[in-house]
Amino acid sequence: RKCIFIKTSNRMFIFSYLHLNIYGNPAAATKEHQMTFPSSTTEIPHTLMPRVTEVFFVESKIPTIPKGAFVANPQLEKVEFLNTPTVSVEAGAFEGLDSLKDLEIVGTLLTSIAAGVFAEVPHLESLVLKSNQLGGLQRGLFDGLIKLTQLQLHMNSIQSIEDGTFDELKSLKSLHLAKNNLTSISPSLFSQLDALQTLRLYENQLTSVPEEVFLPLPNLLEIGLQRNQITQLAPRLFPHKDKLRKLYLDNNLLTDLPPEYFTGFSLLKTLTLHANQLTGLPALLFGGTPKLTEVRLHQNNLSSLPSGVFSPLTNLKELDLSKNHFETLSSEYFDGIAKLKKLYLSNNKLRTLNANVFEKVTSVTILKLSGNMLENLPEDIFEPLKALIRVDLNDNPWRCDCNFIYLYQWMKDNSKVLTHTPPVVCTFPNDLSGREVISLTEDQLVCPTLAPTTTPLHTTTMTVRQTVCGTCT
Ligand SMILES: *[C@@H]1O[C@H](CO)[C@@H](O)[C@H](O)[C@H]1NC(C)=O
Ligand SMILES: *[C@@H]1O[C@H](CO)[C@@H](O)[C@H](O)[C@H]1NC(C)=O
Questions:
Q1: How close is the Cα of 160 to the center of ligand 1, in Å?
Q2: Strands (E), 336-385
Q3: Please, what is the Cα angle at 469 between 465 and 473, to 5 degrees?
Q4: Which residues on adjacent β-strands are paired with residue 272?
Q5: Neighbours of 245 (CB within 10 A)
């Protein structure tokens, strides 16, 4: 049991393996049918016991996987090399492995694999080549792998992939090319992968994606394009709208989006657009996306929005507009999203908000307004928010003067809802700077005396405050 957590975490695997090695087993059998060869192993054993169907080479000193390495062991169903210092795989290395379903070569020093190496394992279903140092993929490398459903190539240094490389992978459902060095992809690269459901291209250096590239892929459920340098999305990039469930576009350089871009994706549940440079959104962007319950637009350059832009998202529960450039907000931004529960507006440049700004989002339970430039808020601004559970108001330059009494009182009355770590403190006036708002007493909230008044200064504090307020509003 201990040695088969490879997929979840290499580190966990190695830890378990070390544990076994404490007992000095050169080759530890974890289960009857499994065998692990540790770092003391210097070559692939010629014959294994017939019951062994899975072998693991973990940090074994195997620089080359030679031709015919497994010919005497045709029973093998799974072969894995993990963190071995392997630099080459010879042609014919896997010949005779007629039952092999699962091959993993992970964390080695391989910079290339010649076409033909996998031609002898036609029953392969899963091929994991992640965390190597592959620089490119040649046409023919995966030819003959008609049963392959999973191909993992992430965390290499792949800069180029020859056209046709994936053309024989008719059964492929998952292709993982993330964390490589791709700067572009050819329009026909995936043209034969009709069965493909998951395509991960994130963390490459793509600046654009050809418009036709997803056209031959009607079964895609997930497309990961995040963490590239994409500046523009082609208008018809995602032609198959009926199956897609997850679309990741965050951490690119998008400045705008084509109109009606996210309409008709009937099953789309996850859409990420954060950490781009969007300066605005088209008036009509969403529609016919009933499963979309979260919209993540944080860390963009938005300073205003079209009225009702989210209104087709009738099931929207979470809207993240934090880390944008908003100086104020209109209640019309929130038209039609009455089921919204979480509204994140922190780290903008908000200076003023209208009293009615939240009147349409009466179901909001979590509201974040921290990290803005707010000095005060109008009376009754929180009145429509009857379901509030948590409000963040910290990191604003609150002006705790005579005009602050409404907000002060609200904070006192709603202390359970207000986040206190970090505390909400005053910035102005100077003598209250740094003081926690709820620690003050109401009579400390005074306005400076600007002009001589008719009221003598020696009357009660209460009178002074009221009188002075009359002059400074
Ligand atoms: C590949 O990408 C990684 C991460 O972005 C970068 O550190 C590395 O220098 C790149 N290598 C080449 C050959 O461009
Ligand atoms: C977005 O804002 C950042 C600063 O927050 C700025 O460096 C960048 O140029 C802006 N991009 C656009 C397209 O306005």
A1: 13
A2: 342-344, 366-368
A3: 165
A4: 248, 296
A5: 17
Cα-Cα end-to-end distance for the chain: 73
Asked if residue 247 lies in contact with residue 226, where contact means CB atoms within 8 angstroms, the answer is: no
Q: Read off the pLDDT of residues 277-322 as tens digits, 9 standing for 90 and up.
A: 999 999 999 999 999 999 999 999 999 999 999 999 999 999 999 9
Contact by Cβ (8 Å): 35, 55:
yes
CA distance 109 to 373: 52
| SS3 call for 384 | coil
How many other C-beta atoms can be found within 10 angstroms of the C-beta atom of residue 197? 18
DSSP 40-108: T--S--S---TT--EEEEES---SEE-TTTTTT-TT--EEEEES----EE-TTTTTT-TT--EEEEES-
Ligand in closest contact with the CA of 158: 1
Q: What is the mean pLDDT of each run of 10 residues along the chain (473 residues)?
A: 37 40 48 92 92 96 97 97 97 96 98 95 97 97 97 98 97 98 97 98 98 97 98 95 96 97 96 98 96 97 97 96 98 96 98 97 98 97 97 98 96 96 96 96 89 52 40 38
Task: Write the pLDDT tens digit of every residue in 32-41.
Answer: 899 999 999 9
- Other CB atoms within 10 A of residue 311 CB: 18
Ligand 1 contact, 229 CB (< 6 A): no
Which helix (DSSP H) or strand (DSSP E) does residue 128 occupy? strand 126-128
Is 157 touching ligand 1 by the criterion CB < 6 Å? yes
Instruction: Identify the CA nearest to 364 among candidates 379, 378, 335, 344.
Output: 344
Verify whether ligand 2 is closer than 6 Å to residue 301 (CB atom): yes
> What pTM, to 2 d.p., does this model score?
0.88
Residue 405: how many CA atoms within 13 Å on its side-chain side? 12
Average pLDDT, the chain: 90
Ligand 2 neighbour 303 (Cβ under 6 A): no
Buried-state track 83-102, b at ≥16 Cβ within 10 A, e below 16: bbebebbeebbbbbbeebbb
